[in-house]
Amino acid sequence: DTAVSQTPKYLVTQMGNDKSIKCEQNLGHDTMYWYKQDSKKFLKIMFSYNNKELIINETVPNRFSPKSPDKAHLNLHINSLELGDSAVYFCASSRDLEAGDRGQFFGPGTRLTVL
Amino acid sequence: SQQGEEDPQALSIQEGENATMNCSYKTSINNLQWYRQNSGRGLVHLILIRSNEREKHSGRLRVTLDTSKKSSSLLITASRAADTASYFCATSDLTGANNLFFGTGTRLTVIP
């Protein structure tokens, strides 16, 4: 019973393509997030989203866009992929905008390789 | 940048010893959290300490927070080989958005 799941686990694609990564959480959480972890293991917040508000990290290129068809899903769309987009992308969720004591629940990650 | 820093970058100890990792951050925070990441896996939340708390315990974990120095430490007592992983601190700022800003991580290796 995976709490936060992502598909695909691995994604290899050519530069210039458009791709999507799906994320689903079955925890009933209100807020979902996308993080990027680069080759040096630095983790950076990209987006946070609940049913009212999308907060975008200002450093994220507008080629990246989150789409939430419903409360349990937050998919990540990436247009015109670039070599520098290669990284591991993590989806996460939390109970609401307040952290609570259980922090955020992370998915297993999607390793994106742009050739 | 709100990215924190962790010290040391890598730590290798014998099973049964204690492991201490430190984290420094730059801005005022709502809370500080520690996460663990096994190789090739997602992050797992370990413990959260709020800005008005100074120390917190959870099993073999002890976390301290010094907001005047903008620093935190994570102590793992009686380490086990299964504790081998990367450990990250993450801060949640005062905007209420609950976005986490992660440190650079400490790679802990526990030798059986």
Structure description:
The complex is a heterodimer of chains A (115) and B (112). In chain A, the strands form 2 sheets. In chain A, strands 2, 4, 5, 6, 9, 10 and 11 form a 7-stranded mixed β-sheet that branches. In chain A, 37% of the residues are buried. Chain A has a single domain, classed as Immunoglobulins (Immunoglobulin-like), CATH 2.60.40.10. Chain A has 115 residues and is mainly β. Chain B has 112 residues and is mainly β. Chain B has one domain: Immunoglobulin-like (Sandwich), CATH 2.60.40.10. Chain B contains no helices and 11 strands. In chain B, strands 2, 4, 5, 9, 10 and 11 form a 6-stranded mixed β-sheet that branches. The radius of gyration of chain B is 13 Å and the shape is globular. The mean pLDDT of chain B is 92. Chains A and B meet through strand 4, strand 5, strand 9 and strand 10 of A and strand 4, strand 5, strand 9 and strand 10 of B.
Overview in brief:
With 115 residues, chain A is mostly beta strands. Chain A is 0% helix and 48% strand.
| CA gyration radius of chain B, whole angstroms | 13 Å
Q: What is the CATH architecture assignment of chain B?
A: Sandwich
Q: State which percent range the strand residues of chain B make up.
A: over 45%
- What would you report as the Rg of chain A, rounded to the nearest angstrom? 13 Å
| Total count of strands of chain A | 11
CATH topology of chain A: Immunoglobulin-like
CATH class of chain B: Mainly Beta
Order of helices and strands of chain B, N to C? Answer: EEEEEEEEEEE
Number of strands of chain B: 11
Low-confidence stretches of chain B: none
Shape of chain B: globular
Percent in strands of chain A: over 45%
Instruction: Kindly report how far apart the N and C termini of chain A lie.
Output: 34 Å
Number of helices of chain B: 0
Main beta-sheet annotation of chain A: 7 strands, mixed
What string, H for helix and E for strand, traces the elements of chain A in order?
Answer: EEEEEEEEEEE
